[in-house]
Structure prediction request, 111 residues.
Amino acid sequence: MNPPVSLWYIALMIVVMMLVTWGLRALPFFFKDSLNEHPFIAFIQNRFPLIMMLILVVYASEVYKAQHVSEVQFSLIGIGFTAVLQLVFKNYLLSLFGGIALYVVLVNGLI
Prediction:
C-alpha cells in the first residue's frame, strides 16, 4: 500500500507546474525581437495559414483513412472544385459554398 501524499507535496507540485506553464508562455516574449528577424519565423508567418488549411482539409475529408480512391472520390472532386473556384474568383465564401454544394450533389446522386 502506498503512503498518503502530504498536502505540502501537492502544493509544491502545483506551484512547480504553475511556474513551468508561465515560463513556457512568457519565454517567446523575451526573445520576440530576435525571433522576428529570423528567416525561418518569417517563412512560418507567411505559410502558416495555408498549412493549417491543408491540415484541416485532409482531416475533415478523412482522406487519410481511405484504402482506395473510390472511397473518397467525391471528397477529392469537391476539394479540387473548391481550389479551382478559389484560383479563378479569389473569393473564399464562393469557393467554400461551391465546393460543398458540388460535394452534396455528388454524394446524394443528383448528378
